[in-house]
Amino acid sequence: MKLTYKQTEKRPENSFLARQDRMPCIEQDWHFHKEIELIYFIKSTGTRYVGNSIGNFQAGELYLIGSDVPHLFRNHREYYADKLEDEAVDLVVIKFEQDFLGSNFLELPEAQKLQILFQKSNRGLQFSKAATYLVHNHILGLVGSQGLSRIAGLLKILDILSASENYMSLCSEVITNAYSKNEKDRMARVISFLTDNFDKKIELEQIASIAYMTPNAFCRYFKKRTHKSFTQYLNEIRLRHACKLLIEGEVQIATVCYQSGFNTLTNFNRQFKALMNITPSEYMELYNEEVELV
Questions:
Q1: pTM for this structure?
Q2: Pick from 95, 197, 246, 253: CA 20 to 30 A from residue 7's CA?
């Protein structure tokens, strides 16, 4: 799968895109676009790849992805494989260019916080539940709105988010400045392969050949671009998938281990604790306690 540039569909009567998508599953490629993207998951779960960051996403989460930042949100295979409904995924997507209100808009004193927000979005942002709650109704109200109320609605959302400190930066560096086009294509091939095959045995020589590099050169390249070793990055993909299986609680921990691509339970437990700071069983107990308190 090659990194793709997506040209956002625009209507002549609108200066930005705002739509709600209901579908059986998310079907995306590793992609980027000029527009800044605000994506709100009403119903869906899966794995997110934003720049050099990996994590799980779920319903109720809100992300802001900066211009030209490569990203991919993908449902876990089993999420939609056993669903017959046509609306297993429900999300709102808002895409707008940084200067959609004119090239001088961000130079206004009143827009200073907004300019800072856009700069931070180049690392990818995930907002807290509290911040998301504040914009929930505004986001839903933006879909289908017309005229000046549409622009006012987007500005209200961005104003709330720019004033919030309740967010998490996803990437360790500004990704738009970190990758050339050829490097984006190379990383796209690597990430695509890992996403589809993380539950299988993957040899270093195999993944290096996909990047058209020798194993040693690939290791240096991968560490430089992601700030993680290849093994660490692969383990993160596997462990994020394991977290999802543990939360669902439908299989035993040993089964989670093997379905996530680990060969031994001992190694799985060790890697899980290194990333999450708790054991798999403690993770399950903690999640169940939180659910009971809701």
A1: 0.71
A2: 197
